[in-house]
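Lab notebook, bench 4. The sequencing result for the construct came back, and we need a structural model before the next group meeting so we can plan mutations. Quick request posted to the team channel:

Model the 3D structure of this chain.
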Amino acid sequence: RNGIRFARMGQATTPRGQLRPGLSLFGRLGGGQNGHFFKIVAPYVDVSKPPGFSEIPPPTLRDWVLGALRLQYVWASPNFVWAVIALLFYFGWPYDLSARGAAAQGPLSWAFFAERLPRWLLVTFAYNGFWHITLYWLGWAERPFIPDRRYSWAKVLHNVFWSAVGVVVWTGFDNVFAFLWATGRLPYLADEQAFSTLSGFCCFVAGLAAVPLWRDFHFYFAHRVLHFRAMYLQVHSLHH
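Done. Here's the predicted structure in token form:
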């Protein structure tokens, strides 16, 4: 998203679909280019055209498979940033899955929401707030998708409200799964197994790497369903 929308005017591009020379592994970490996340342009973007008018190379199954085998979807994309955040939460604010923990009290419990909801709200608005402040307030972008778009506090508050609603909904799903784990209704990989045996650690790492792959499939088909007329009009149109 950032590579297309926030390209620098007049910046040279390489042939479509190719990476820039000298684009190292570290330089692409987290989805950046040459270690930068601002004022960059994707290799296929023609900066002589208005934003949104460059031809995007069609994705292929071969490229997707090769990228998966190289784990590019983990380290060379925003998934890396999200994985780091997930690990910080995992070790810094772990779930209490004991019989007396908030998760075991019920599939939807006030104690669980009081424990987890503030943390999810914090990480959600810290992450989105960072991009909002840097791109809109500090102006670290020179090619907005809509050049003459006016900043609207009403729209900002609208987005904040519905984002918070989304966090509440996902905390509900979080509560349900934590309840199933805490009560033994759903198996999970305990820390004792994940960090005391080689097989457990490999399962932990494999699970962390598999989440973005599953999200690719899930997001594509879920998004297609959301664009069916009834779902779009009643649900998804709010997003657009």
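The mean pLDDT is 86.
Will bring this to the meeting.
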